[in-house]
Amino acid sequence: MSETSTERKRPGWKFLRDLVIIVVAALLASFLVKAYLVRSFYIPSASMENTLLVGDRVLVNELVPKAVGLQRGDVVVFQDPGGWLGPGMGDDLIKRVIGLPGDTVSCCDADGRLQVNGHAVDEPYVVLQSGSNRVSGQDFTEKVPAGQIWVMGDNRYDSADSRVHGTVPESDVVGRAFVITWPANRWSVLSRYGDEWDQVPDAG
């Protein structure tokens, strides 16, 4: 009788043990994901409007660029390389990647468009100044140094970006923003507009 009772109890104990292991593993995986793979960031300024609004929260994939390379059009969070932010303004910024190492970025062509390696890029996300078709208020031509990226805000006339501060070291990139999570009515996946950016030729 005793052996039969013990045998009957074993399946229940094994189930409970397995359940505890599954819960602990799930909690550990969640912690590791949050700590090392995905982080949430708050949008404090209007420099990325209308793609990102003040008060939005985004999730950032920290595998980029450590394990996955950067691409033109990516929306990235990066640490202040120095002098981008004033006192008390935090340490992180968010902009769109326009130029990769070796690229030549220039603006503007006759139609007001940005050019990367001689290819004119259509940027439907850019907030233009009233009465103008130019995606930047000033003309420029810059070659991106090795190990650096050229970034710009989507709200070009209200963004102090690489046009003002210069390029950003790839090593300062925290990760790629890929989804808006808050507020709920703003939930959406962030596009890099690959159909347009993938037409840009590699730097010669």
Largest sheet: 8 strands, antiparallel
Question: Structural class given helices, strands, pairing?
Answer: alpha+beta
Mean pLDDT, as a whole number? 89
Strand proportion, as a percent range, falls in 25-35%
- Percentage of helical residues? 10-25%
The total strand number stands at: 12
N-to-C CA distance: 83 Å
Report the C-alpha radius of gyration, rounded.
23 Å
> What's the overall geometry?
elongated
Entry summary:
By secondary structure, the chain is of the alpha+beta class. The chain has 3 helices and 12 strands; from the N terminus they run H-E-E-E-E-E-E-E-E-E-H-E-E-E-H.
Provide a descriptive summary of the structure in words.
- With 204 residues, this protein is an alpha+beta fold.
- Helix content is 22%, strand content 27%.
- It has 3 helices and 12 strands; from the N terminus they run αβββββββββαβββα.
- It has helices spanning 2-37, 162-165, 194-197, and strands at 38-42, 57-61, 75-79, 92-99, 104-107, 114-116, 119-121, 140-143, 148-152, 168-169, 173-182, 188-189.
- The strands form 2 sheets. Strands 1, 2, 3, 4, 9, 10, 11 and 12 form an 8-stranded antiparallel beta sheet that branches. Strands 7-6-5-8 form a 4-stranded antiparallel beta sheet, with no helix packed on it.
- Strand 11 (173-182) and strand 12 (188-189) form a beta hairpin.
- The longest helix has 36 residues, at 2-37.
- It is elongated.
- The model has no long low-confidence stretch (mean pLDDT 89).
